[in-house]
Each structure stands twice: as C-alpha cells, then as structure tokens.
Amino acid sequence: EADQTENSESATAASPLSIWLQRTIRVLAAPLALIWFVGALWMFVRLAFGTRRLVRLIRAAEPNSNATLAELFAQVGRVLQVERMPVLLVSERVSGPFSAGVLRPCIVLPTQLAERISANQLRDILMHEVAHVVRHDPLVVLMQQLAGAIFWWHPLVRMVNRRLAQAREEI
Question: Could you give the CA distance from residue 85 to residue 77 in angstroms, rounded to a whole number?
C-alpha cells in the first residue's frame, strides 16, 4: 500500500519542465494574443479597403455597348452552357480584364480592349473570365483572403494562397 501511495504522489507531482512551460505560456499568452489580434486587424482593414476600391471600380464601370463584344460574350455563354451570365462592364479605369462579385458576378474589361485585339483573342479572354465566374472563383478568393487574415502569421497559408491564385489563372 505504501508503494501505491508513493507512485500516485510522483505521478501527480509536476516536473520542473512542465512547471516552467506552464509559467511561460501564462506569461506569453496575452502578448501573443495581442500580436495576433493586431496582425489580423491589419489584414482585415486591408481587405476592407481593397473591397471598397473594387466596389468603386465596378460602380464606375459602364454596361457594354459594343455589339461585337456583346455577340462574342453571348457565344461564350452558349459554349460554356452558362445559364446565368455575369454582367459585362467596360471601364477606362482598369488596365486589364477581371471578374468579381460573389452575389452579383460581373466581368470588367478595359474600354478600348475590343478595338486593340482580334476577335479570337477577345473570345479567349471572355472565356477565361466567364470560367472564373462559373467556378465561383470570386467566392474562393474571398475565402482565401479571410483565411489569410486570420492565419496571417502562418507561412503555409500564404504559400497555399499563392499557389491557388496561380492555379486559377492557368486555366
């Protein structure tokens, strides 16, 4: 019986390492939480300003009025069998095409793009941008940005986000 009491006492006694670890965690928890919070807040602020800028670009864009561009866009919709096509907008404030919008997807093209490139090149660009919308890439990008804001300190999250962004553009 004395052996059992001795064994239970040694099992419950904390080792110097575990005591040191508990104290270290207790001391560092609040500063590390504060650092994480400030970093996450900074990332969310950047995300909010980026979203605001994107919304302004889209609101400033105009509906497409180019008949050739509209016909190519309709062809792309038929080829990809898209039931609900995104809105096609043009803007002088953008230098390259992009798709955006989780709830109301749209594609924004530079105003003079249709005059500068061939119909085949324009069709390829439209196909690429519509594919982004069909695959729900704007939602995926938003989820990536949220994960990146929460896990801003984690190098694997940043690496995965970079690779996903590259993969989206390769298709």
Answer: 7
Structure tokens at 152: 């801003």
Query: To the nearest whole number, what is the mean pLDDT of the chain?
Result: 93
What is the mean pLDDT of the segment spanning 18-28?
A: 93
In 9-33, which positions are buried (b, 16+ CB within 10 angstroms) versus exposed (e)? eeeeeeeeeeeeeeeeeeeeeeeee
Instruction: Specify the pTM.
Output: 0.82
Query: At residue 149, what are phi and psi to the nearest 5 degrees?
Result: -70, -40
Q: What are phi and psi of 39, to 5 degrees?
A: -65, -45
Closest CA to 97 of 82, 115, 113: 113
Tokens found for residue 134: 């069909």
